[in-house]
Amino acid sequence: MSSDEKPSAPRSLAEALRARDDASLAALLRARPDLVTPVPTDLTQLATRAGTRASVVRALEHLDRFTLQTAEALAVAAEPAAYEELLGLMAGDARDAAVVAALPGAVAVLREQALLWGDDDRLRLVRTARELLAPTPQHPSPTGLGPSVREATAGMSPGRIQEIVTAAGLASTHDSVSAVTALASLFSDRRRMSALLSEAPAESLEVLERLVWGPPYGQVTADPAARLRWLLDRGLLLPTAPGTVVMPREVALHLRGGHAHRRPEPVPPAVEAAAARRPQVVDAAAAGQAYTALATVEELLKDWDEGGPAVLRAGGLSQRDLKRTAVALDLSEPMAAFWVELAYAAGLIASDGEADERYAATPFFDEWVERPPAEQWVLLAQAWLAGTRTPGLIGGRDAKERTLSALGPGLDRSAAPEVRRRVLTLLAGLPEGTAPTAESVLARLAWERPLRGPQRDDDLRSRLARWTLSEAELLGITGRGALSSQARALLGAAAHPHGPAADQGTGSARDAGSPQGAGSPQGPGDKLPFHHHTVPAHAPGLVSPAERAAASAAAVRLLAPLLPEPLDHVLLQADLTAVAPGPLHRPLADVLGVLADVESKGGATVYRFTPGSVRRALDAGRSASDLHAFLAEHSRTPVPQPLTYLIDDVARRHGHLRVGAASAYVRCDDDAMLNEILADKRAVALRLRRLAPTVLAAQADPAALLDGLRAMGFAPAAESAEGDVLITRADAHRSPPRTAPEPVPEGPPVPDGTLLAAAIRAIRAGDLASTAPRKPAEDAIAQAPGALPRTSPADTLATMQAAVLTGEAVWIGYVNAEGSASQRVIAPVRVEGGFVTAYDHTADEVRTYPLHRITGVAELADDEV
């Protein structure tokens, strides 16, 4: 074929794919990653897989609204359809300028994703997509159009068809086919159809108006009214079943002015601004919330330091334990559930795996808590962005009507990372400091990924978007509703210019070859997803670990100066309280957290000293002198005398009683104190008896005995079997090393460039092997078309040896050790010892094949050699 000749039109999707270059194939596999898992053997198998129902459904679900509307219009158009027919269905008789400008891009997206093939004069929607989108009585088309005249009259008697044609003012014909064709031509002719409807009674036109935008079906009685009879006689309504009529597609299109959809949406809705503030104010507010988030997570983990709540038999946290945790954190239960899930997603808490299974902090928590606050926040933010667990579902019910619990099963939603990333990308497209309205964000997301079927206000993606906006504010990703600078850096958006219209886009401005679809420009964050498993199927590419690390470092650098500096002092007051006017250095906070109880939190934290808190510090191994020195060193005010007295009084009584294990015992050098304990009515439950003047035995375990004596006002100390005082530490319990839960991917991951190149090379080579013309051997065994070549062993050996001498490539059938058969194109270089060594064009490498596994061989045709 000369270079001036026009290539022939493809006859199938496989031929259309065969005509593509490698860049176009890579775009297809990137947009539809399920097609590359596993790698197809050739382009025919790739086309077959692209037409399977599961793959087509997934592809349709990732189209934006206008591209999906285009596919829906093609499903009701002729097969094949010319571009001009499609344009008429989308832009109508008035030729809407925005639709005219956007339609080439939508067609390009459908063609690129192998949902559409053929030249512009013969556009064909893949059969599976047409079946999914075409109207049926059980599943009306989203366009609201009914069947065509030809489809609606398929079961009608020839006599009745001739009656309709005559009533419509057409000449009768000799057969039903030509009569139906003439009727369809009448309904499609704007001038003649207008003339016919001008004769219709007003009541009949009202009936048509009610059906024109769908659903196109209606009910009639056995004796229809005159207004319906006029329409039925002329075929403007056609019977489909007893008592049911339908408006033919051609009639509806005439009344609609050619539109397949009532409201084509070529341009995505703009994300509207709710408020605009100075970026510095937004960053400060977000940093303040980030600090609160860190303090909340740390408080949660410290509350669970000695062993957290028990794990339910079915997994997760009981409602009672969640309520107790919420009270301890002074939060509502939904907010407490969010922080529990976030700590779990970040790998900070896990089950300890013991017989009495409980939740506890992981060893990673000790590493995390020692990091600078900005780095702590980045780790939490990344875990939230990549996680698929959805705290907003807690308290709801699963498909089996079981209540969903915090940390329990059933909370993973694979769409969560993509929705979070997309919401934040939309925020990044606004000017810095601008907060969007939630309604406009939801409208934009609904346009980008519309629901197929009846629209619902409570669909999962909308709920995920609402939760994203609220959770981002809690975590400090946003401040006062606007995306913070540190979050932009974490998204990789800091280096990208943006402005008021950066993410609004129009159908006319989009790239016709963009896999994003009509009117869906890429936001700044689209090019920097966080982890390979969080990238949606339409993401344009992947980032390297080095790029992710750079984004994290940039976020740390921006956030660190905004966080408050930790203090090394407190203010002691005479009412046995200490005021921390800001965050404290960790050693000071750790000791003060043991020595006193937190009474209130906020900009300043108030600690209260009580006999129980002082005893807790003494139990941890501190002496009274240690506590006096600690307070004197870290207080900017003099140590109040009441606090000094409190410490000395508790220390004087601390350890005077000793409790050990017998079942349990109490010993004390002061027998008068033991007499006092025995005489106390509150000690009855402990079932004490005297063993010696200084020893009491109890029928209770040491822990219960310690609690009972402390409830009576004593300050006992536990001792070991050697008689030494046991020192208890609050951070003693940790789970074994645990990894953070793996997100549940929404689908196969987007292949990287290396995998794409290897897959395309393998597909091309396999296609060459399956389609290359070949010359059969003279005495080749008869075979069916497409079967493996079959030649005798002698002919196979002779052909191979000849190919080594001539350097020509040959076509072989090969069966491997597992019994899998394949076709290959090889160039033999050596034949000896029952093996042939050859360059395998299919695998693009030199391989050695046992001759006994080669089913047959054939030379390639001269034009392929």
Précis, in short:
The protein is built from 33 helices and 26 strands. The protein is of the alpha+beta class and 865 residues long.
Query: Poorly predicted ranges (pLDDT <50, ≥5 residues)?
Result: 493-542, 777-785
Strand content: 5-15%
Q: Describe the global form.
A: elongated
Number of domains: 5
Mean pLDDT: 83
How far the N terminus sits from the C terminus, by CA atoms, comes to 17 Å
Radius of gyration: 38 Å
Largest sheet: 6 strands, antiparallel
**Please, how many helices?**
33
Structural class: alpha+beta
DSSP summary, beta strand count: 26
What topology, given as strand order, has the largest sheet? 21-26-22-23-24-25
Helix content: 40-55%
How would you characterize the overall build of this protein?
Residues 495-540, 732-751 are annotated as: Disordered. This is Helicase C-terminal domain-containing protein. One of its GO terms (molecular function) is helicase activity. Keywords: ATP-binding, Helicase, Hydrolase, Nucleotide-binding. Residues 796-857 form the WYL domain. The protein is an alpha+beta fold. It has five domains: 149-255, no CATH class; 273-561, no CATH class; 571-653, no CATH class; 658-718; 774-864, SH3 type barrels (Roll). The protein has 33 helices and 26 strands. The strands form eight sheets. A six-stranded antiparallel β-sheet has the order 21-26-22-23-24-25. Strands 18-19-17-16-20 form a five-stranded mixed β-sheet, with helices on one face. A four-stranded antiparallel β-sheet has the order 12-13-15-14. A hairpin with a 2-residue loop joins β18 and β19 (695-698). α5 crosses α7. The protein is elongated and about 125 Å long.
